[in-house]
């Protein structure tokens, strides 16, 4: 077995041991197909007020500009599908990914362990870990690495496990064996397009970020436009509609990451509890949660908007 094959095998088996759902590897090179797509999306202002999407255009498309001398992009998936959801059917809803501890910290820790493993077992390898917080097109790299295809709702979809997982990367200056992309299995299905409460999926495979419920409830810092009143399907943080209706998510299995287990309060709180939430309760319930990003004022604004 060549060194390249051995290194690839070592990394993939360690990723599995660390609890990642899957690991795929692609060559660190310019994303030719993504460039015109991203440019068009930005030109149509589909990023809304997410101005950070306009920054570092070249870095988003070329990993060698993020990590000098990089040769491989290691893409990793981590399952977050919960075994139970909020109890009160009338309570404002939180996206499933935010039930447990903030995924950025959980995944960063695992990536650090993987980096240490590579250094100890392969040698001096330079690289950087990325979890949804840098100019990296996560879904494009995961698709290029054969971990799934990008569906009509613009999420990465995988036949055996659906789409309830986080995507992260290690970009390294190590030559590895590269995986090949899988084929698209959306077929003629339009479930996500038909179900989107705000018609944010403007074309198959194109989501207008500025119309998405996740954008309104997390990214938008000002008042939510009144034309969207009554169209939020009771979501107060994020939105899972296009994933919930996707036929491939019939195959989702609950995660086994203890840090993603929800605080009981999140599942037990009633509609009345949420409507009367105080800063003190918010701080307690969302202590290490991604929901902290909206702050108490943002979540209160969202809950009021649903009334």
TrEMBL record:
List the catalytic residues.
Answer: 132 (proton donor)
Entry's localization field: Cytoplasm
Homology family: Belongs to the QueG family.
Q: How does it assemble?
A: Monomer.
Residue ranges of the 4Fe-4S ferredoxin-type domain? Answer: 174-205
Q: In which pathway does it act?
A: tRNA modification; tRNA-queuosine biosynthesis
E.C. no? 1.17.99.6
* UniProt-recorded name of the protein: Epoxyqueuosine reductase
Q: Which residues bind [4Fe-4S] cluster 1?
A: 186, 189, 192, 246
Checking InterPro entries in the record gives: 4Fe4S_Fe-S-bd, 4Fe4S_Fe_S_CS, QueG, QueG_DUF1730
- Residues binding cob(II)alamin: 60, 132, 153, 156, 167, 214, 239-240
| Pfam families reported for this sequence | Fer4_16 (PF13484), QueG_DUF1730 (PF08331)
- Cofactor remark from the record: Binds 2 [4Fe-4S] clusters per monomer.
Cofactor requirements of the protein = cob(II)alamin; [4Fe-4S] cluster
Q: Does the keyword Cytoplasm apply?
A: yes
What does the function comment of this entry state? Answer: Catalyzes the conversion of epoxyqueuosine (oQ) to queuosine (Q), which is a hypermodified base found in the wobble positions of tRNA(Asp), tRNA(Asn), tRNA(His) and tRNA(Tyr).
Reaction(s) catalysed (UniProt annotation): epoxyqueuosine(34) in tRNA + AH2 = queuosine(34) in tRNA + A + H2O
Enzyme class, first EC level, given as a word? oxidoreductase
Q: Name one GO molecular function term.
A: epoxyqueuosine reductase activity
Q: Which UniProt keywords apply?
A: 4Fe-4S, Cobalamin, Cobalt, Cytoplasm, Iron, Iron-sulfur, Metal-binding, Oxidoreductase, Queuosine biosynthesis, tRNA processing
Source organism of the structure: Aquimarina rubra
Give me the residues that bind [4Fe-4S] cluster 2, please: 196, 212, 239, 242
């Amino acid at each position: 077995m060549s060194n390249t094959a051995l290194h690839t095998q070592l990394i993939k088996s360690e990723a599995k041991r660390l609890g990642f759902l899957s690991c795929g590897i692609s060559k660190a090179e310019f994303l030719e197909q993504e460039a015109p797509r991203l440019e068009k999306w930005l030109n149509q202002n589909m990023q809304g007020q997410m101005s950070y999407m306009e920054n570092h255009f070249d870095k988003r498309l070329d990993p060698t500009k993020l990590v000098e001398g990089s040769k491989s992009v290691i893409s990793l998936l981590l399952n977050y599908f919960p075994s139970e959801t909020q109890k009160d059917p009338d309570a404002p809803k939180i996206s499933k990914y935010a039930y447990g501890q903030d995924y950025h910290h959980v995944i960063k820790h695992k990536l650090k362990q993987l980096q240490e493993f590579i250094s100890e077992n392969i040698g001096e390898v330079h690289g950087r870990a990325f979890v949804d917080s840098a100019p990296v097109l996560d879904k494009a790299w995961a698709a290029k690495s054969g971990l799934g295809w990008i569906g009509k709702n613009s999420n990465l979809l995988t036949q055996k496990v659906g789409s309830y997982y986080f995507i992260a990367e290690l970009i390294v200056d190590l030559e590895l064996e590269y995986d090949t992309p899988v084929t698209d299995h959306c077929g003629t299905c339009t479930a996500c397009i038909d179900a989107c409460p705000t018609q944010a999926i403007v074309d198959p495979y194109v989501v207008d970020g500025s119309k998405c419920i996740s954008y309104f409830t997390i990214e938008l810092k000002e008042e939510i436009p009144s034309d969207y009143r009554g169209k939020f399907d009771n979501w107060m943080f994020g939105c899972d509609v296009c994933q919930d209706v996707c036929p491939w998510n019939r195959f989702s299995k609950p995660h086994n990451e203890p840090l993603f287990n929800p605080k009981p309060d999140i599942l037990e709180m009633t509609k009345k509890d949420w409507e009367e939430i105080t800063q003190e309760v918010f701080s307690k319930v969302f202590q290490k949660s991604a929901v902290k990003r909206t702050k108490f004022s943002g979540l209160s604004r969202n809950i009021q908007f649903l009334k």
